[in-house]
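Thread title: Can someone regenerate the structure for this chain?

I was given the following input by a collaborator and told the matching structure tokens would be attached. They weren't. Posting the sequence so someone can regenerate them.
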Amino acid sequence: MDPITIGAAVSAIGSLLGGISGFLGANSQAKALRAQAQQERAVAGVNAQVALDQGDHTVATAATQAAANGGGIDGSSIDVLNSMAQRSAFNARSAIYSGNVAAQNALYNAKVTSAQGTNGLISSVVSAAAATAGGFAASAQAKKILDIQKGLSNLSGGGMLGAMPGLGIPDSRF
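Best answer:
Regenerated them for you:
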């Protein structure tokens, strides 16, 4: 095997190894992003529960203070307590929504990263094929040039081919 073909083969192998490495790295990153999405949803659930617990505590504290002050729980006091409970539920829903948005973003990034890894692998295969084909073509061209140089060397060195009147080369055998 000539040096040109060997160089092309080494280039092709390097291209393939780079593509495979990029593909595997992208898949690992995509897996981590999918795990992050699950984590975002879990954290959102915890944050929602915390918001509900805080709301319940606030409402209970306000009701207890109203009763302790002798005001009872009626009219505007009930409206205030209902408003606090609604705010607590809103905070819980907001926490869940934010977690779902973060999870969807992580899943989208996982898909993009995975696609980039696949595209890199495909690109490396095409690049390896191009390097191999280019190496074979360059090798064939170099061989053809050597054959032509040998032929010209034979013409000038002993006239073994005989007369070539079309090229202005006389028959040197006489």
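The chain has one domain: 3-161.
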